[in-house]
Design brief:
Strand 3, helix 4 and strand 4 form a beta-alpha-beta unit. The chain is α/β, with parallel strands linked by helices. The protein has six helices and seven strands. Bound molecules: zinc ion (ZN). Zinc ion binds next to loops.
Length: 197
C-alpha cells in the first residue's frame, strides 16, 4: 500500500477492466517517472469519450453521431443484419472484410445467473428493423458460449414467426470463447459457413 495521490491513482486504475493491482502499480509509477508522458491528454480523451460517444439509435453500436457510420452508409447491404453482443464484436467482424451488411448490437447476452434477460438487452429495437420486408437474413453472431447460445436460441424463436432466414455462425469458433478473440480467418470462415436456425 502506498499513500496519498499515488495510491489514489492505483485505486482509480484498478477499477478499470483488465487492470489488476500489479498493472495499476506499474502504470502509476510510469506516470510519475516518465518525463515525456503527458497525462493531460489521457484525462482529456477520457472526458471527451464520456461526453461525446454513445450508442447508435438504430443498431446500438458506438458513435459520436445520432446514427453510426455503418447504419448511415447506403452502400452496405441493407438486406442482412448481423446480431452481436457488444460493439467490440462489430469491430472484430469489420476486420474480416467478409461482411458488408448491417449490425444490431444487443449490449450483452441472456444470463439468468446475472439477472440479464431479453428486457435488459436491445432486443425490442431489433423487431421494427425487420418490419418493412427489406431484411432477408438475420445472422446471429453471439459468442460461442453458454450465454451466447441461450441468446441465439431465444432470438431464433422470436424471429421464427417472420419470413426471414435466421442463421448462426458456423462452428470453428472456439467453444466457450469470445468472438472478439477469434482470428480474422476463423471468423471469416464462420461467416461463409453459417447455418440455418
Ligand atoms: Zn448504427
Amino acid at each position: 500500500m502506498y499513500e496519498g495521490l499515488i495510491q489514489d491513482l492505483i485505486d482509480e486504475l484498478g477499477q478499470l477492466p483488465g487492470i489488476g493491482p500489479k498493472s495499476a502499480q506499474r502504470i502509476a509509477f510510469f506516470v510519475v517517472q516518465d518525463e515525456h508522458y503527458n497525462p493531460a491528454k489521457l484525462a482529456q480523451t477520457l472526458a471527451a469519450v464520456r461526453e461525446h460517444v454513445h450508442f447508435c439509435s438504430i443498431c446500438g453500436n458506438l458513435t459520436e453521431s445520432e446514427i453510426c457510420s455503418i447504419c448511415s452508409d447506403a452502400r452496405r447491404d441493407q438486406t442482412v443484419i448481423c446480431v452481436v453482443e457488444e460493439p467490440k464484436d462489430v469491430a472484430a467482424i469489420e476486420r474480416t472484410h467478409e461482411y458488408h451488411g448491417l449490425y444490431h448490437v444487443l449490449g450483452g447476452a441472456i444470463s439468468p445467473i446475472d439477472g440479464i434477460g431479453p428486457d435488459q438487452l436491445r432486443v425490442t429495437s431489433l423487431m421494427p428493423r425487420l418490419a418493412d420486408g427489406t431484411v432477408q437474413e438475420v445472422i446471429i453472431a453471439t459468442d460461442p458460449n453458454l450465454e451466447g447460445e441461450a441468446t441465439a436460441t431465444y432470438l431464433s424463436r422470436q424471429l421464427g414467426y417472420l419470413d426471414i432466414s435466421v442463421t448462426r455462425l458456423a462452428s470453428g469458433l472456439p467453444v466457450g470463447g469470445d468472438l472478439e478473440y477469434a482470428d480474422e480467418i476463423t471468423l471469416g470462415r464462420a461467416f461463409e459457413g453459417r447455418r440455418s436456425l
